[in-house]
Amino acid sequence: MDVITYFSTHQHNLSTPSRTLAMNHILDQGILADKFLEVIYFVDEKQKIVLYHAFDMLVERHIDYLNDYLDLYLSKALNETHESTKRCVSRTIFHQLKHNKNVYNTTQKQQIVNTMFDWIILPSAVATRVNAIHILYFLVDEEDWIKEQLIALIEQNLLLQEPSFTSRGKKIMKLLHKRKS
Q1: DSSP 69
Q2: What's the rounded Cα separation, in Å, for the pair 110 and 53?
Q3: How far apart are the first and last CA of the chain?
Q4: Which of 17, 45, 115 is nearest to 73 (CA)?
Q5: With contact defined as beta carbons under 8 Å apart, do 73 and 37 qualify?
Q6: Fewer C-beta within 10 Å: the chain N or C terminus?
Q7: pTM recorded for the entire structure
Q8: Average pLDDT score over the chain
Q9: Burial letters 123-139, b for 16+ CB under 10 A, else e
Q10: Which of 51, 78, 83, 58 is nearest to 135 (CA)?
Q11: Number of other CB atoms surrounding residue 39 within 10 Å
């Protein structure tokens, strides 16, 4: 059974066991990231969200899985509009940058920076915004303006945001101020 047929006929859900089953199928079958992305964009919207969650789990546990297909991933993932999918995308990028800040090239980093600022400024779920500020912290040295804009954005939103944003925002501010000295 090919990968598209498998994921078109096996309806996975957001439970951890179901996502783990999907992830293990990908690993057991040796399915590369480009094929998995093809499947994600072939199935219906509900399954797409579930598969993005499985993809996020897969990259978190197998950090190099996506490395050969970063351009393909970013061309699709950074254009997502569904909040649950955006959360997965931001988590995936967060885990990759946490592991290796040089996994992306300069052009890819610029795309990520622009999208993360958009996701913070435009209405997005708190988990997406929290991941976005941390991603921008990882990329703060890429452009001179990132640090200044990130500090301004965090300060502007610190009192208005949910506790998780406030907590991560304060943590990022401390890290940014440490870098000054």
Answers
A1: G
A2: 24
A3: 58
A4: 115
A5: yes
A6: C
A7: 0.91
A8: 92
A9: ebbbbbbbbbbbbbbbb
A10: 78
A11: 22
Tens digits of per-residue pLDDT, 79-134? 999 999 999 999 999 999 999 999 999 999 999 999 999 999 988 899 999 999 99
Q: Which tens digits make up the pLDDT trace of 37-49?
A: 999 999 999 999 9
Q: Which amino acid is at 54?
A: A
DSSP state of 102: T
Q: Which amino acid is at 72?
A: L
Please state the three-class secondary structure of 115-154 as a single string.
Answer: HHHHHHHCCCCHHHHHHHHHHHHHCCCCCHHHHHHHHHHH
> Tokens 């789990």, residue?
57
**What is the residue whose two structure tokens read 């993005």?**
52
